[in-house]
Amino acid sequence: MGSWLQTASGRCLLEWEQRCLDEAVADAFGFHALQLGLPEIGALRANRMPQRWLADESSSDARVVLRCESDALPFPADSIDLVVLPHVLEFAADPHQTLREVERVLRPEGRVVIVGFNPTSLWGLRQRLSRLRLGLPAPEGGAQASRAGEFIGYWRLRDWLRLLGFAIEGGQFGCWRPPLRSERWLARLQWMDGIGERWWPVLGGAYLLQGVKRVKGMRLVGLARSQRRRAARASNAALAPREGAAIHRERERA
């Protein structure tokens, strides 16, 4: 996919994804952040956590700190505060196991940010035509993607995350222009992005999805305490007039 990102369509996609990722990770706090795959994009560059890891299973890029499989991460459970997956699930042999591994290493209230191609789009149509061997190169990388499987839909991915106990924090679509080779035609069709964002947002070529790992009972302790405090204040406020009235009656009798 690295070579495809150097094409006109790849650069358009990279520009949109970099902007969205910068916004998504800028306010994520903690100590340990992890980017899985696609070292061509700086998914964590806007994040301020002291430990930021870049992991990839096959890249020879010198910036890659860890080389590991996405479904077997070398981190203990509940140890990472943020995990970003830019187009990892499209290449994963078992995307379900990859998500389970992400859920394992994330701390409670840890965040996951996923970027993927939208099958319900012009980009998805081109990918399907590519798989029918009509000579159109798929954006996600040809033969390797053929082994990995189809694009994963936005709503389908939301369901997967919910089954793993994630709360969906938000999502967005982008890249409504078709994935053309010509930079000149991409510039001419730039108007499609503005119209698509307004009138058919769910048909964008790519999407970004954010989730938060929820653990049952983790947030209820603080909530229960605040509820008890409010109840105590309300009870004291209700008792105060009664106590004042009782004292007043005793003074009248005296």
Description:
The protein is of the alpha/beta class. It has 2 domains: 4-217, 3-Layer(aba) Sandwich (Rossmann fold), CATH 3.40.50; 219-254. 41% of the residues lie in helices and 18% in strands. The chain has 8 helices and 6 strands. The chain has a 6-stranded mixed beta sheet with strand order 2-1-3-4-6-5, with helices on both faces. Strand 3, helix 2 and strand 4 (106-117) form a beta-alpha-beta unit. The radius of gyration is 25 Å and the shape is globular. The model is unreliable at 134-147, 220-228 and 237-252 (pLDDT under 50).
Which terms summarize this structure?
2 domains; disordered C terminus; 41% helix; 6-stranded mixed sheet; alpha/beta; 254 residues; Rossmann fold
Question: Secondary structure elements and their pairing?
Answer:
Layout: H1 8-25, E1 32-36, E2 51-55, E3 80-86, H2 95-105, E4 106-117, H3 122-131, H4 142-148, H5 154-163, E5 166-174, H6 183-188, H7 191-199, E6 206-213, H8 220-253
Parallel strand pairs: 1-2, 1-3, 3-4
Antiparallel strand pairs: 4-6, 5-6
